């Protein structure tokens, strides 16, 4: 038991060593010269050059003055930046090359182990040593002579093995190069996403500033119009209070005259009565005319002329929008075309092969200017001018009011005790009272 376990342990180190000496590109043991990448992974120089050329198809070292290129390590995806010498500027890993030589010598001195070669399922004692080109499967010589592949075209296993291994190696190089292109596209899309967010933030800031201007104009206009209403209120109240004061003074004078007249009526002597009667009667007549000092007309208290019709401005505010429908339709159509292209590409790669997977780098990309958000702009200057022009009534109403005020002034000259309208009477009589 110990002897057998010892044999198993003896074979494991060599197998593990062989796995460490396999190139990740060609899947074969490293072929000299072996180069070491900055990430400490090793490649055959030929394989490294194939990957480098695939990732940099326009690179050339002619003239010795062309700048280098870059590719990604197939093992860890670390980006390797090359100088103008390309892969020939990479350092050789002599240690790995010496280990390969020692390993090959050790393998050549060991007898071939039995049981590692695949055997035919139909002929259990026969090794698989030929390849059926017709059925595209490996088989044995007995199957060709007596079995199912009797009428098929076959070829030596080693020939097909080398051909398919070369094809697989080329596919791996193509996939690695495709992965580099995909990584580049991902980086570009991430940049596009970042720029889109930045542009969106900028457009939002500009839009907020424009609306803040409108809010400020509305607040300023609101304060202005409220102050005008307050001034009109104060003028009317001041006028009414002045009239009240005049009538109170008149009432006080009339009350005193009544008291004086009553006292005169109580005079016993006719001479004393007659001496005061004439002036007293004259004063009473004059006082009786004071009841026509002035009064407010019907509707003087109304403030209905301070009204605003803002429905048209409200409709304009509701209609605020970006751009036109044509720009939106063009964007939707372009997005739909990209979705259809992506579905076609994905359906073409369902078999999961390396060749189909390499086509995945053509899924789609954004056009130039895709990140722009310039079509989300608003010209609100005309609306701002409209808000600044908000006022009570109209110019025609103001002209009619001025004409009416002039007619009332003429009427007042003819009849000082006549009635006057609310605003004109209030302002004029208040000045007279002062």
UniProtKB/TrEMBL annotation:
Acidic residues biased stretches: 326-348, 393-418
Gene Ontology molecular function: any one: zinc ion binding
Residues of the RING-type domain: 23-77
Top-level lineage group: Eukaryota
Keywords assigned by UniProt, alphabetized: Coiled coil, Cytoplasm, Metal-binding, Zinc, Zinc-finger
Domain COS: 265-323, 335-393
Chain segments annotated as coiled-coil in the UniProt record: 215-264
Family annotation (Pfam families): zf-B_box (PF00643), zf-RING_UBOX (PF13445)
Region (Disordered): 326-356, 389-434
Gene Ontology cellular-component terms listed: Z disc
Residue ranges constituting the B box-type domain according to the UniProt record: 115-157
Biased composition (Basic and acidic residues): 420-434
UniProt subcellular location: Cytoplasm, Myofibril, Sarcomere, Z line
Gene3D superfamilies in alphabetical order: 1.20.5.170, Classic Zinc Finger (3.30.160.60), Zinc/RING finger domain, C3HC4 (zinc finger) (3.30.40.10)
Protein name per Swiss-Prot or TrEMBL: Tripartite motif containing 63
């Amino acid at each position: 038991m110990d002897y057998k376990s010892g044999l198993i342990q003896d074979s494991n180190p060599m197998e593990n060593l062989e796995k460490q000496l396999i190139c990740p590109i060609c899947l074969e043991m490293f072929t000299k010269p072996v180069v070491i990448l900055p990430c400490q992974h090793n490649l055959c120089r030929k394989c490294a050059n194939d990957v480098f050329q695939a990732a940099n198809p326009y690179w050339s070292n002619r003239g010795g003055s062309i700048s280098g290129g870059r590719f990604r390590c197939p093992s860890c995806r670390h980006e390797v930046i090359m100088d103008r010498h390309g892969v020939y500027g990479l350092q050789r890993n002599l240690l790995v090359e010496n280990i390969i030589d020692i390993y090959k010598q050790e393998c050549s001195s060991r007898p071939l182990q039995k049981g590692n070669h695949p055997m035919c399922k139909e002929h259990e004692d026969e090794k698989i040593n030929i390849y059926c080109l017709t059925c595209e499967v490996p088989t044995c010589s007995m199957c060709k002579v007596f079995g199912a592949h009797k009428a098929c075209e076959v070829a030596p296993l080693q020939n097909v093995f080398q051909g398919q291994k070369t094809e697989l190696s080329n596919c791996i190089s193509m996939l690695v190069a495709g992965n580099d292109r995909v990584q580049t596209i991902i980086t570009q899309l991430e940049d596009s996403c970042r720029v889109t967010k930045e542009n969106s933030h900028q457009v939002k800031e500009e839009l907020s500033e424009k609306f803040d201007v409108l809010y400020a104009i509305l607040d300023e206009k609101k304060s202005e119009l409220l102050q005008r209403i307050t001034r009109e209120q104060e003028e009317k109240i001041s006028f009414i209070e002045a009239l009240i004061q005049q009538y109170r003074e008149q009432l006080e004078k009339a009350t005193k005259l009544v008291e004086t007249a009553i006292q005169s009526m109580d005079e016993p002597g006719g001479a004393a009565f007659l001496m005061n009667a004439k002036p007293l009667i004259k004063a009473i007549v004059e006082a009786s005319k004071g009841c026509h000092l002035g009064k407010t007309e019907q509707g003087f208290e109304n403030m209905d002329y301070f009204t605003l019709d803002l429905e048209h401005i409200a409709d304009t505010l509701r209609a605020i929008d970006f751009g036109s429908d044509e720009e939106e339709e063009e964007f939707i159509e372009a997005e739909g075309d990209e979705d259809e292209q992506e579905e076609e590409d994905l359906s073409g790669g369902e078999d999961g092969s390396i060749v189909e997977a390499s086509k995945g780098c053509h899924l789609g990309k954004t056009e130039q200017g895709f990140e722009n958000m310039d079509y989300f702009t608003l010209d609100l200057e005309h609306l701002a001018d409209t808000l600044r022009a908000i006022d009570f009534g109209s110019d025609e109403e103001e002209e009619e009011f001025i004409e009416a005020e002039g007619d009332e002034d003429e009427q007042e000259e003819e009849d000082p005790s006549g009635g006057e309208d609310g605003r004109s009477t209030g302002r004029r009589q208040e000045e007279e009272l002062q």
